[in-house]
Amino acid sequence: MECAFVGCGAVAGKYAAALDSSPLSPVAACDLDADRAASFAADTGAAAYTDLDALLDATDAPLVVNLTGHGAHAAVTERALRAGRHVWSEKPLALEAERARDLVAYATRHDLALGCAPINPDCEGQRLARRALDDGRLGPVRLAYAHAHVGRVTEWHDDPDSFLRVGPLYDGAVYPLTLLVAWFGPASRVRVADATDPWPDRESRTPERPSHVEATVEFADGPLVRLTASFYAPHRSREFTSLECHGDDGSLYLADAGGLGADDHTPVSVGRAGRAYTPNPLTAPPRRTPYLAGPERLAASVRRERPDRSTARRGAHVVAICNAIERAADLGEPVAVDASVVERPARRSVVWGVEGGGDDGGDVASPGPPDAALRLPPVGFGCSRYRDGTYVDRRESIERALDAGYRLLDSAELYGNEARIGEIIADPGSPDREALFVASKVWNTNHGHVAEACETTLADLGLDSLDCYMVHWPESWAYTGPLRRLAELPVETQEALTFPETSDGERDRVDVNLEATWRRMEAVHDRGLTATLGICNVDLSTLADLVEFARIPPSVVQIPRHPYRPRDDLVAWCHERGIRVVAHSPLSVPGLLEEPVVTEVAAEMGVSPATAVLSWHVGDGVVPIPSSVDPDHVVENLAAAGYRLPPDGTERFASLVDSEFER
Question: For the chain, how far is it from start to end, CA to CA, in angstroms?
Fold first, then answer.
């Protein structure tokens, strides 16, 4: 789509940086400074203008990108709208709420698209924070702290006059306020506000509006927000544009509410009520959202013949909040905020599995096969109690995993701790059930008693159904009764129940073939006790036979997989059929993390060998389920989904393949 840039200052260069790969094509550039307009036009191949009316008369470009100074935004937007153009405006939409509402109303009446920066709700860190709100970990959010320390613009900006004229509310506070409105809907009133003028005596240029503003803003269906906006507090201070939300069940901290991404692998931290924050890593490679993304989305809405005005409505409400803060500071009393142009957003569900796709963060799902039946997180968490030859309690590590953002829990009746896992899932501060993908497995002794085993698992977990129920091993052993709460029994008793022996000390096997076991698995699926079925620890021949006779084929195949034995034939076979592959014990092979190829690739990536191995799995569309009791490793393993091997990394890992390898 052809577009015209109006305003060719520093921010225009940031927008233009992405033009080479953009569907937008600039045909005109306008600035009151002729040299600046000419320079920008030369760089972008556009025609240069110094008069907006002349530009609008000379070109029929359907989209105007308004990048003028703060105080000129409303006038330029109005002129462009009246000329029948769609408009994207830098923030703020206007400096007066009434004028902002009028612009939205005009665009609505004439079916024109109108958009407004900032685009921060759509950036990766903010989307990660939004998911933490949507998945229920915080409970009802009743309090938030927002900072906008713009800093002394006379020290860091080449042309600070526009900033000094509007003050920190309209340049800095718009970032956290935009995010809060996107998350919680409209503010209802400003309870109290104060505005003051700290400023260095040595500065010859001073703000025309108060340089430091503090306010308490009440959201109609959301939190009470304490907002600080300042030109005096340095922008390099501890709090720049941070946002901290506190709910009944937990808290969330977002270090940069205005960030565009690609600066931090762990931009969000979440903590259960009364507990320390846990870093929440990105689960896809960091990606910076370009400034041009806003105009591009607006243009796309025009092409779809559904001109969008949602960001403009949100921007108009942000202006109304800023106006109300100024008025409350002047009057020394509460001031209502007009909310006529914005609605409370619908809560978005975060769903994995067969019904997956409810979350807009498609970047958090595992790459997987193109036609995968299941949408799975890229890295899961193994809940086995068996660590280094002993049984350990996993409560703290599983809580840590959920706090860090893991959403796939891999359990089994063999592990004996499903009752404890159920308690954790039910605890305040854990994600809602629908946000989790919970898998369990029937043990070898229960192949003839699958329904009983599944019902026992569900009772221990406190769930109505599983997302996936799997056959732990194809081999069948003698029945020893229900395997419930094994973790509470003496180790000798656990071993006797789960690894039965004959009188001569051999494994006590029984003649229950895989097809008979699978029919029982299909029966529990038919009863709605599990959404999908799976099988573990199989070779390709056994799996192919199973798929051949199955009425309900497996949706998940879980296998041991590592660079020595990548099982590429099985992985490719599964992916061709839309079957997800999960890799258990991905880091436990002796010597793997000390392997020179692994350590060298990891060093090039700037990560640990464990991260390199896990990212190898993710890059192949396989979901690794590492297990750790180390708090730092729990977070680090999930963060591996945010890295990719270097271009030759896969080939170098392939050099480790050893078809004779045995653990």
Answer: 59
Mean pLDDT of the 128-137 span: 95
CA-to-CA dists, residue 530 to 395, 470, 516, angstroms: 24, 10, 18
pLDDT at 355: 57
Angle, alpha carbons 219-222-223 (nearest 5°): 80
Task: Write out the two tokens for 117.
Answer: 């920066």
Helix (H, G, I), strand (E, B) or coil at 323: helix
Give the Cβ contact number of residue 364 at 10 Å: 23
Tokens of 274: 């009364």
Ordered DSSP codes for 338-372: --TT--PPPPPP---BTT---SS-GGGS----TT-
Tally of CB atoms within 10 A around 413: 24
* Rounded distance between C-alpha atoms, residue 159 and residue 165, angstroms: 12
Quick one: 119 exposed, middle or buried, by C-beta within 10 A (0-12, 13-18, 19+)? Answer: buried
pLDDT digits (tens, 9 = 90+) for 141-196: 999 999 999 988 888 887 888 899 999 999 999 999 999 999 999 999 999 999 99
Alpha carbons 230 and 169: distance in angstroms, whole number: 8
Cis peptide upstream of residue 176 (ω within 30 degrees of 0)? no
Contact criterion met (CB below 8 Å) for 440 and 469: yes
- Is 145 part of the annotated catalytic residue set? no
H-run or E-run covering 143? strand 141-149
86: helix, coil or strand? strand
Closest CA relative to residue 317, chosen from 185, 190, 222, 214: 185
Question: What DSSP element (H or E) covers 134?
Answer: helix 124-134
Please report, to the nearest 10 degrees, the dihedral formed by the alpha carbons of residues 402, 408, 413, 414 taken in order.
Answer: -90
Angstrom distance (rounded) from CA 417 to CA 619? 31
Q: Which residue has the tokens 């698209």?
A: 113
pLDDT (0 to 100) of residue 34: 97
Return contacts of 44-52, CB within 8 angstroms, 24+ apart. Answer: 44/5, 44/16, 44/19, 46/4, 46/5, 52/6, 52/76, 52/79, 52/80
Percent of the chain with pLDDT over 70: 97
| Cα distance between residue 153 and residue 10, in whole Å | 14
Q: Tell me, what amino acid is at 585? A: S
Of the candidates 170, 253, 291, 415, the residue annotated as catalytic is 415
**Spatial separation of the C-alpha atoms in residues 549 and 515, rounded to whole Å:** 7
